[in-house]
Structure formats: structure tokens, C-alpha cells
Design goal:
It is found in: Cell inner membrane; Cell membrane. The protein contains 13 helices and two strands. With 324 residues, it is an all-alpha fold. The protein has a single domain, classed as MetI-like fold (Orthogonal Bundle). A hairpin with a 4-residue loop joins strand 1 and strand 2. Helix 5 packs antiparallel against helix 10. It starts with a helix and ends in a 5-residue tail after the last helix.
């Protein structure tokens, strides 16, 4: 219970600091929310109407007064109103994240499974040609930006060989309520592949190093002396000890995954939370940006906390006498 309250207190402090820092940074943005909202009709808007819009949105108030009003509403459960989507910020985040969740979950699972599998094979055939090939591929994927991978997949499998959809989360004419599951899955393939390649290389290299280290440990020599060998030794002993850091790294990489999703959704015109973040930034929708930043901060903190708890729980299970 003490550990829970400690993490909860750290979360509250983190959210407050992130909120203050984000609000200050957004105040230096060159984007005028009113000009972005009015668009080409700005020349036909008299100064009096411009001032009324600014007063309605609270943009005529000092910075700290605006932040105080926003923070007080947040404490009451009101995240504000999105000027871009003309609906409450909480509703925008809920709808957009529901679309992004399938993308993030699919990429998270695929990168973890492929990364651990490739790292396991590289560690099994250490310093041989499978290991060298996997290492080169992993280093290459780790150095490539997400948007470049996304555009390459788009050019190959949607333009050169049009076997998959070019963009969006469903076919034109449909929406989230009418799109079929098979249709959604087809539109998910390319974004999930592009996003999963972002973290796969890092997990593969990390798993490889851990397996190589475990293979040299004393308890593996003891297991070999008892008769364990080959794939039985690798699966029952080595992989059990190497999977712990891979799982922790996977949960700790949620922030990187969400950053990559922002670029992937832009390339594929995927109507998720990342696309909404970019649109809100370009249009100066401060309430929506603040809500998204706090929501993403909460998710990243949750991933890091789960990662820390996994280290403690899994290490305790491996330290039991019957774990060897």
C-alpha cells in the first residue's frame, strides 16, 4: 500500500509539472487559434467580432489566469472544449483513442513477439550467420525513422503492388459504426507493420545480449550438468530468464511507441489520437493539446510503473529454489 501511494504521489506531481510546462510552451506557439479557426474568412471578420471570440475562449486573459481557469475545471473533471472538433476534449480523446488502440496494441504485440523471437535465434546461434544477419537488420531498423518506413511500405504494398489500402481506418463511405471487422483489419496491416518495426530491432538486440549473458551463467552450467541440453535447455531455462528484461523493455517503450504512432497515423491518414494531435497543434487547439498530453503522460507513466513492478515480481519468481 505504501508503494502504491508513493507511485500515486509521483504521478500527481508529474501531471502538474507536465501541465505547467506544456501550457507555457504552447503560449510561445506562433499559431493564432482564432485565425486558424476562422481561416479564409478572417478578412471579413470585424475587429469587434474577433475580440468577442477571443473573450469567449479566454484568450484575452493573462497566461497564468488562463492556466488557473483551465486547471480548476480539470480538477472538477472538465478537460475543456475542443475548438477544432467542436466537442468536449474528453469525447475527442475517447473516440480517437478507441481507433488508435487497435494500432498501438497490434504494433506492441507484434514488435514484442518478433523482437524476442529474433533475439532468441540470434543468441542461440551467437557469432554465426543467423546472429550476424539478425543484428544487421536490427541495427538498420533501429536507425530508420518511422515515417520513412511507413512511406516505404505505402509505396510498395499500396502503390507499386496495390494489395492493401492506401489510407484511413475503413473504406470511403463507411465510419466507425458501419465498418466491418475484416475491413478494419485490412486497413491496420500497413500501419501496424510500420509501427512494430520501430521497436522490434531494439528488443531483438536486448534479448540477444541477455541470452548470451545467461548462457555463460553458473546456473546454466548446473542445468547442463543435470542433463539439460539443446532446445530444452534454451526454452526451459535460458528463455525464462531472458524474457524478463524483454517484457520490461516492452512496457517501458510505450512512450516511443506513441511517438511513432503520431507519425504513422499522419502518413496513413489514420484517424486516431496521433492525427488529432497534429491537427490540434497546427490549428492551435490548446485545450485538446493539453488533454492529449496529459492522457499520453498517464499512459507512459503506467507503462513505466508496470515495467518496474514486473522486474520485482519476475525476479522474485526466478529466485525461488524451484525456479532452477
Amino acid at each position: 500500500m505504501k508503494l502504491f501511494f508513493s507511485h500515486f504521489l509521483r504521478l500527481i506531481i508529474l501531471l502538474v509539472l507536465v501541465a505547467v510546462g506544456t501550457f507555457i510552451l504552447l503560449s510561445f506557439s506562433p499559431v493564432d487559434p482564432i485565425r486558424a479557426y476562422i481561416g479564409n474568412d478572417l478578412l471579413h471578420v470585424p475587429p469587434e467580432q474577433y475580440a468577442r471570440i477571443a473573450a469567449r475562449w479566454g484568450l484575452d486573459q493573462p497566461l497564468w489566469e488562463r492556466f488557473g481557469h483551465w486547471f480548476w475545471r480539470l480538477l472538477q473533471g472538465d478537460m475543456g472544449y475542443s475548438m477544432l472538433f467542436n466537442m468536449p476534449v474528453a469525447s475527442v480523446i475517447r473516440e480517437r483513442f478507441a481507433t488508435s488502440f487497435a494500432l498501438l496494441a497490434g504494433a506492441w504485440l507484434l514488435s514484442g513477439v518478433l523482437g524476442v523471437t529474433l533475439g532468441f535465434l540470434a543468441g542461440r546461434f551467437l557469432h554465426r550467420w543467423p546472429d550476424k544477419m539478425i543484428c544487421r537488420i536490427s541495427y538498420l531498423l533501429s536507425s530508420l525513422p518511422t515515417f520513412w518506413i511507413a512511406m516505404l511500405l505505402l509505396a510498395l504494398f499500396a502503390v507499386r503492388w496495390p494489395v492493401l489500402p492506401v489510407c484511413c481506418a475503413w473504406d470511403p463511405g463507411n465510419n466507425a459504426g458501419t465498418a466491418l471487422l475484416s475491413e478494419r483489419l485490412r486497413h491496420l496491416v500497413l500501419p501496424v507493420c510500420a509501427l512494430s518495426l520501430l521497436g522490434m530491432g531494439q528488443i531483438a538486440l536486448h534479448t540477444r545480449e541477455k541470452i548470451a549473458s545467461v548462457m555463460k551463467s553458473e546456473f546454466i552450467r548446473f542445468a547442463r550438468a543435470q542433463g539439460d541440453k539443446g532446445w530444452s535447455l534454451l526454452c526451459h531455462q535460458v528463455l525464462r530468464h531472458a524474457i524478463t528484461p524483454a517484457l520490461c523493455l516492452q512496457f517501458a517503450s510505450l512512450g516511443e511507441l506513441m511517438g511513432g504512432a503520431l507519425l504513422a497515423e499522419k502518413v496513413f491518414a489514420y484517424p486516431g489520437l496521433g492525427q488529432a494531435t497534429i491537427d490540434a497543434g497546427l490549428r492551435g487547439d490548446v485545450p485538446l493539446l493539453m488533454g492529449i498530453v496529459l492522457f499520453c503522460t498517464l499512459l507512459v507513466f503506467a507503462g513505466n510503473t508496470i515495467s518496474a513492478w514486473l522486474v520485482v515480481v519476475l525476479n522474485r519468481s526466478l529466485e525461488r529454489p524451484d525456479a532452477l
